[in-house]
């Protein structure tokens, strides 16, 4: 079957139509074959083939332009992402996804350095299916990625597994094998240009089949890597800017707080100073501090006793500043006072307020003398400015206490003269003594507990001052009389014995030596107070004879022994009369007749219990009692003589002989 030759123009038109339709290169090649089949002449066929070659070149140029257009579009989109940078991870994921799409690879990924670990890690992956590969970490110089980071140059391999240009490691090869990658192209993420550029990561495109990457593909990936580097650097700069702004805002807030604190401190100082100048007392200062610091405030003296306590809003929390001595002997109160004194000493050593047991404690000092402490409750979060305000308040309170103590010492000297006159001649002018006391602000007709205190050695000279300090804030008065210090104080709910024990302990601490204190009363009126003093002196003498120096008690608490000793009985003579023969016998022969007799009476006359107490045989006890009978006479065990012997034995034991 023959074909009528067709004009070459028809075939040329066909080539143009295919080009216009964007047909693949394979379809362009069929035009020349069709002309040959249709019987085109050699001259026409040559013309068609030349036109086909030109069409293929045009097709290639158009394809490259379209690809370049897509690349430029991707780069413009990436630049737009950078301009609206909000989320660095989102931008990096977009860059990696576009790299995979434009290069037509199976996967793409981006690695960044881990400065703390000293290696690099997978930051973003696209098209990866291997968890092992996604968690790979590379040291500098390891694998293709390590070489890219080390040299700051792009590298490509058509088959990574057989390429010996890279340092292969077991972990990297295992990850690449698990992902199934063969051809890999990697380019550095560079900040700066030339030899001074800094590598901050690497961008990769990879295929699971062998492939040779063209130079324009390398250039495209480098362009995307440059954008990624800009994104990372921009994000870091923005983060640094945010941090700087936050630090600036914080610094501005601190400056503002500091300025406000200074102003508040000035106002607080003026308020406290004005309060003192207007004649305010310790309770007023405590009330002001409580209001300023929004907490409960208490003031304690040097021995831990409360002077006053107020609430956060100015209402009295406890006490009225009276803190009378003798107002609490329970173990909890003593332990609380001891804890406060210890905290105040820590504050003195640190020269600042200290936080102890949920409260702030600041020492109040006169030089190095501990006047007491200021205590703040309910403010565990006390900050710097408020802490300094609290410490400044303790200084103001210290000055006020010093002023009050100076006034109290002066008043006490005047009142002390009154007490001396009262004790010397209570019946000379009792009405005049009472009137004189009222003029001095001291009502002798009110019941008072009388304490007589005595110490020995060098501490004797300090006892009078210690008594003034002990009574400070409590409404009492003290005076020196006949070698002892006499204190008159309100009962305050404590009996004379309890008040004496409290005073003995705290006066001993103040003078640094044991102080013996006797209590008497309550007594009202000059005559009764003088009688109470006589009773107190008698009790003091009894305590000394009983070897109870440094303790406190009342005559009533000593019972029959107190009455006996207080009536000027000769204790040594009494003991010698009752036990003299036994004492002399024991001293000469080293026997234990006195001890045996005491054990016999202590065991209720039981020989069996006495021998167990003495750790001897019962026959030994019998023999010793026979010797007692021989020395004291046959009536030694009669009720009357037994009572005398037991009393003498007890006095002998208490005297420490």
Which helices and strands appear, and what pairs or packs with what?
Layout: H1 8-21, H2 25-37, H3 42-83, H4 88-103, E1 107-114, E2 119-126, H5 131-134, E3 137-138, H6 143-151, E4 155-157, H7 170-179, E5 183-191, E6 198-207, H8 215-277, H9 282-293, E7 296-301, E8 306-310, E9 316-318, H10 331-350, E10 354-356, E11 359-366, E12 369-377, H11 384-424, H12 430-439, E13 448-454, H13 460-471, E14 477-481, E15 484-489, H14 496-511, E16 516-523, H15 526-545, E17 552-554, H16 555-566, H17 571-589, H18 593-602, H19 607-614, H20 618-632, H21 639-654
Parallel strand pairs: 16-17
Antiparallel strand pairs: 1-2, 1-6, 2-3, 4-5, 5-6, 7-8, 7-12, 8-9, 10-11, 11-12, 13-15, 13-16, 14-15
Helix pairs in contact: 1-2, 1-3, 2-3, 3-4, 3-8, 4-8, 8-9, 8-11, 9-11, 11-12, 13-14, 15-16, 17-21, 18-19, 19-20
Summed up:
With 657 residues, the protein is an alpha+beta fold.
Written overview of the protein:
The chain has helices at residues 8-21, 25-37, 42-83, 88-103, 131-134, 143-151, 170-179, 215-277, 282-293, 331-350, 384-424, 430-439, 460-471, 496-511, 526-545, 555-566, 571-589, 593-602, 607-614, 618-632, 639-654; strands spanning 107-114, 119-126, 137-138, 155-157, 183-191, 198-207, 296-301, 306-310, 316-318, 354-356, 359-366, 369-377, 448-454, 477-481, 484-489, 516-523, 552-554. Helix 19 packs across helix 20 (618-632). The longest helix is centred in the middle third of the chain and has 63 residues, at 215-277. It has 657 residues and is an alpha+beta fold. Mean pLDDT is 78; it is low at 312-324. The chain has 21 helices and 17 strands. The chain has a six-stranded antiparallel β-sheet with strand order 3-2-1-6-5-4, sandwiched between helices. Strands 9-8-7-12-11-10 form a six-stranded antiparallel β-sheet. Strands 14-15-13-16-17 form a five-stranded mixed β-sheet. Strand 8 and strand 9 form a beta hairpin.
């Amino acid at each position: 079957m023959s074909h009528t030759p067709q004009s070459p123009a028809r075939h040329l038109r066909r080539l143009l139509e295919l080009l216009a339709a964007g047909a693949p290169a394979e379809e362009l090649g069929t035009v020349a074959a069709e002309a040959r089949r249709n019987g085109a002449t050699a001259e026409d066929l040559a013309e068609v083939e030349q036109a086909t070659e030109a069409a293929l070149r045009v097709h290639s140029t158009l394809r490259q332009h379209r690809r370049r257009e897509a690349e430029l579009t991707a780069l413009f989109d990436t630049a737009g992402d950078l301009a609206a940078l909000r989320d660095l991870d989102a931008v990096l994921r977009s860059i990696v996804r576009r790299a995979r799409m434009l290069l037509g690879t199976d996967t793409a990924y981006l690695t960044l350095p881990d400065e703390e670990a000293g290696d690099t890690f997978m930051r973003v992956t696209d098209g990866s299916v291997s968890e092992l590969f996604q968690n790979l970490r590379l040291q500098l110089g390891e694998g293709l990625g390590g070489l890219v980071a080390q040299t700051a140059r792009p590298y490509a391999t058509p088959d990574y597994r057989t390429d010996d240009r890279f340092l292969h490691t077991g972990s990297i090869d295992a990850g690449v094998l698990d992902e199934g990658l063969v051809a890999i192209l990697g380019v550095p993420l560079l900040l700066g240009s030339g030899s001074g550029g800094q590598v901050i990561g690497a961008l990769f495109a990879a295929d699971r089949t062998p492939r040779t990457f063209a130079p324009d593909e390398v250039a495209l990936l480098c362009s995307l890597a440059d954008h990624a580097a800009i994104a990372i650097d921009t994000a870091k700069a923005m983060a640094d800017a945010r941090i700087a702004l936050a630090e600036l805002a914080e610094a501005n807030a601190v400056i503002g707080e500091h300025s406000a604190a200074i102003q508040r401190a000035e106002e607080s100082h003026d308020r406290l100073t004005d309060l003192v100048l207007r004649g305010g007392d310790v309770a007023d200062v405590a009330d002001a501090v409580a209001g300023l610091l929004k907490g409960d405030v208490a003031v304690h003296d040097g021995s831990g006793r409360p002077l006053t306590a107020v609430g956060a809003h100015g209402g009295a929390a406890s006490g009225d500043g009276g803190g009378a001595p003798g107002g609490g002997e329970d173990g909890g109160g003593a332990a609380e006072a001891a804890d406060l004194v210890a905290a105040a000493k820590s504050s003195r050593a640190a020269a600042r307020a200290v936080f102890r047991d949920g409260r702030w404690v600041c020492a109040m000092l006169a030089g190095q003398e501990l006047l007491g402490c200021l205590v703040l409750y309910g403010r565990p979060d006390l900050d710097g400015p408020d802490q300094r305000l609290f410490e400044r308040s303790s200084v103001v309170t210290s000055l006020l206490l010093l002023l009050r103590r100076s006034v109290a010492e002066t008043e006490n000297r005047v009142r002390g003269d009154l007490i001396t006159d009262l004790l010397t001649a209570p019946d000379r002018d009792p009405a005049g003594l009472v009137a004189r006391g009222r003029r001095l602000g001291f009502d002798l007709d009110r019941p008072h507990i009388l304490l007589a205190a005595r110490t020995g050695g060098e501490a004797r000279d300090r006892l009078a001052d210690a008594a003034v300090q002990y009574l400070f804030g409590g409404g009492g008065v003290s005076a020196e009389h006949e070698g002892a210090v006499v204190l008159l104080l309100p009962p305050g709910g404590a009996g004379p014995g309890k008040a004496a024990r409290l005073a003995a302990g705290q006066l001993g601490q103040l003078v640094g030596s044991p102080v013996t204190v006797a209590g008497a009363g309550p007594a009202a009126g000059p005559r009764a107070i003088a009688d109470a003093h006589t009773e107190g002196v008698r009790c003091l003498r009894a305590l000394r004879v009983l070897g109870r120096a440094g303790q406190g008690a009342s005559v009533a608490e000593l019972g029959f022994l107190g009455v006996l000793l207080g009536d000027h009985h000769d204790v040594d003579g009494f003991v010698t009369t009752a036990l003299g023969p036994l004492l002399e016998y024991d001293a000469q022969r080293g026997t234990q007749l006195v001890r045996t007799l005491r054990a016999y009476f202590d065991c209720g006359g039981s020989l069996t219990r006495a021998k167990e107490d003495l750790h001897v045989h019962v026959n030994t006890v019998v023999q010793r009692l026979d010797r007692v009978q021989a020395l004291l006479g046959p009536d030694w065990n009669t009720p009357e003589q037994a009572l005398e012997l037991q009393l003498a034995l007890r006095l002998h034991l208490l005297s420490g002989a």
